[in-house]
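for the record, two folds in this file. i put them one after another cuz i was lazy. first one right below, seq on top, structure tokens after. the second one comes after a little note so u can tell where it starts
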Amino acid sequence: MTESIGILDDWAQTVTEGNQQPPAESSAPNLGTLAQPGFQLLRTANEFVQILKSLSVEGPLGLTSNLLEEYVIGKGGQFTVYRSSISGQNLTVPWKTTAAAIKRCKIVLGPNQVIDLTGDDVKRQVHNMFLEVLVLRDPLLRSHRNIVQLLGWAHEGGFNALPLLVMELATEGDLTKFMSGPMAENWDVRHHLCLDMAAGLDAIHRCGIIHADFKPENVLIFQNDSEDVPLIAKLSDFGFSEPEAKTRSGSMIHITALSKGWQAPEMSLTIPPTSITTDDYKKSDNYSLGLVIWSVCCFRGRPPPENSNSGALALALRTLGSLPTIPGSLRETIGSGLGQLLCYDAAQRPEYTLEFFRDNGDATAKW
């Protein structure tokens, strides 16, 4: 996107003039906002910008390139992600790099069309973007080493378009891509990534967030300024907040995100349940983490063999035991952790996961 800074500044002025000044910090939205009727009254892109400002999200940032198909680095049901860079003229924070990943909602507007955020066709996308912002601005998560960082927001096209989310760019791509490369052969690196994923998932669960679609494509790999720990895994793309479920009868939440090959047995794609408690949904997240860790060790990021019954754990332990290169102590640590996470009965799975992948080895000590 090559619009001038003046155009961006003019647009920012249009959404803050008159009586539309950003609310005071004390009135800034939080995760509970998703469960309040007021969120449903969010009608325009301008109102969304006010939320970003109330949360002190940097913007509007200038981007150095248009969001063209050739710059696409990822696509999902709700978002398309592009590679770009932040214009230096807009920087007020000394980031290490201006390279960025740009998330854009898949909402197409006609000429002079004003977006209606309450419409059924965009409501889910607005929910996901809103949750993404709130999660990444949470005081306990915004600086967490295993949660992707939100750098700011930008704008593209007409003034009615939803803002773009400007995220830090994963230097090594997602976990699937990384596992096909040579560094994935290093068992200390694999162990560190397992610890990272467990730490990130525990962190969002403690903050009342359910990932709901934990899989390698939603784990991003970054270079780290350490010879002992050269890479860091960070979680992205979050599904639900716990307050949403608490507004429903019995604290149930509707199941929407199911990725074949990475779901818990109770989330079977053949007969999917319509809703689940938040506690059970977290246990499902933890099962998915177990599948991803099993894949990191044995299948280079590909989905493990499908098991719709209680045989997944036994198969995981057999395949882990047959690996010729894994250090014996790590085999024991990973096997013990999978024994907790891949329990067929969700009630038997642990609430938090990191402790099961720590051991007394050098990799854990360096991590």
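(here's the note) second protein begins now
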Amino acid sequence: MDKYDVVVVGAGPAGSTAAKCIAEKGFTVLLVDKDKFPRDKACGGGLPTRVLKRFPYVNDLIDSFSYGSFTHSSSMRYTLKFLRDKPLIANVLRKDFDEGLTKLAVETGAIFFQGKTVTDISIQKENAIIELDGKLKIEAKIILGCDGIRSIVAEKTHLNSKTNDICICVVQEQPMTEKEIEKYFTNKKIVHLFIKTQKIAGYGWIFPKKNHVNIGMGEFESAVNKKKERSNIKELYNDFIKMLKEKKILPKNFTPENLKGGTLPIFPLQKTYADKVMLCGDAAGFVNSITGEGIYYAMASGEIAADVALMALHAGNTTEQFLSQYQRFWMKDFGKDLKLLGRFNKRWGQDSEKIVRLLQNNKLFAKLLIGVTGGRLSISKYKFIFFLSYLFASFKDIFYKK
């Protein structure tokens, strides 16, 4: 039986980050993923710029930058135009980004098993046993579950919880010439966001990249009116594309191809650690419940879990009590923001016209909201000025409507 200090299950941004951090310190790490790389993910691929500040080594994996956004109300009557000289978001192709992160982990000393499925996990007194494909068994002192919303690690260690609070999305990443991208989205690669497009409790998006355009839409189930008849999101997506063509936001000959579906968690699990186990990224529910963005939280939680794992290995203590520090650390780092953002999730089920109108007519409120939802500002730090600016914008809106 092969033995490792740490086994990381899932080689997405969370798992690769954790594996890299641990291997750099000289401990043995096995990174396992059920897919063979390169592999794609249903994702917009828009990263908040704070990812680059915290993890500067990802700069070489960035496809392009966007320097502005247009946020449209559901009726398209109101549009908030926000342009910057500095990048608003960094764009990546998940196929290349995730593979690049795994290569960095391997370069630091991590062992990578790809195309291997974890079928069972057994937590024992001195170690943990991970079973792969029902045959190979691996022994580890610590397991990091970075294996997404349907985490086998969370399931086998009883940390998962059944919930309908998810986001269902469809997305396509399609090649487009640089000339076409500049024609339709300018040289600033303007991001388009469509609030409650096609009457969904969520939004649609366009992320123009260097030689690709990423288009998708996502609906937050937690905000859906349960009395409303369920809609087919694929059919709504076709209507969305048709609308974009009519508004000349996309070329007339654009066709939906390679459409992928996916689900995202919305709220963090109540408990993200157990004896010899910690959960990171989507497996722990670390996603912005307003936008669905999760790469920053995945990498941040992977880094924090790695730090706690290193402390545990040095101390020779991998018990649940010792690993409970992980939850305190991520809560202090980004957990307060996730908790506050979660309070606004159900607003996706409410009228969107007012909020876009408020943003369009109040620059301070617009900057704060874009900063908070885009991950450049901490909502827990700016919550009071955010609330006051909203009140001022609402008061001003009364006179605007008159």
